[in-house]
Amino acid sequence: MLIQHKEEGHKGSFYVEENGNVLAEMTYSMTGDKLLIIEHTEVSDALRGKNVGYQLVHSAVEFARSNQLKILPLCPFAKSVFNKKKDEFGDVLRN
C-alpha cells in the first residue's frame, strides 16, 4: 500500500489514493517549527481491517523523526495508536 504525503503551507496529509480517489487520509497542521498536530484520520470502508490507519500514523512518525519534530495526536484514532505503541513511538510524542 503506497502512503503518499502532501504539504500546503502549515497543513498536510498522509493519504492513500486509488484511481484518483482518496481512500484513506490523516490530516495534520504544523504549529511553530517543531510540532505536528494530527487532526483527523479517516479510512474508507473498502480498506477497513487492512491496518491502513496504523500505516498512516506510522508514516507521520517516520516523517517526524526525519525532520526532528514532535507529534501531538488530537485525533482520537491517532491518540489510541500512540497509547498502544508507546515504546515504539514515544520518542516523537509531545509530552
Short summary:
The protein is an alpha+beta fold and 95 residues long.
Give a verbal description of the structure.
By secondary structure, the chain is an alpha+beta fold. It has a single domain, classed as Gcn5-related N-acetyltransferase (GNAT) (Aminopeptidase), CATH 3.40.630.30. It has three helices and five strands; from the N terminus they run E-E-E-E-H-E-H-H. Strands 1-2-3-4-5 form a five-stranded mixed sheet. The longest helix has 15 residues, at 52-66. The chain starts with a strand and ends in a 6-residue tail after the last helix.
List keywords for this structure.
Aminopeptidase, 95 residues, 5-stranded mixed β-sheet, alpha+beta
Q: Largest sheet at a glance?
A: 5 strands, mixed
| Number of alpha- plus pi-helical segments | 3
Query: For this entry, what is the oligomeric state of its chains?
Result: single chain
| Structure class | alpha+beta
> Strand order, biggest sheet?
1-2-3-4-5
CATH superfamily: Gcn5-related N-acetyltransferase (GNAT)
List the helices and strands and how they pair.
Layout: E1 4-8, E2 11-18, E3 21-31, E4 35-43, H1 52-66, E5 70-73, H2 76-84, H3 86-89
Parallel strand pairs: 4-5
Antiparallel strand pairs: 1-2, 2-3, 3-4
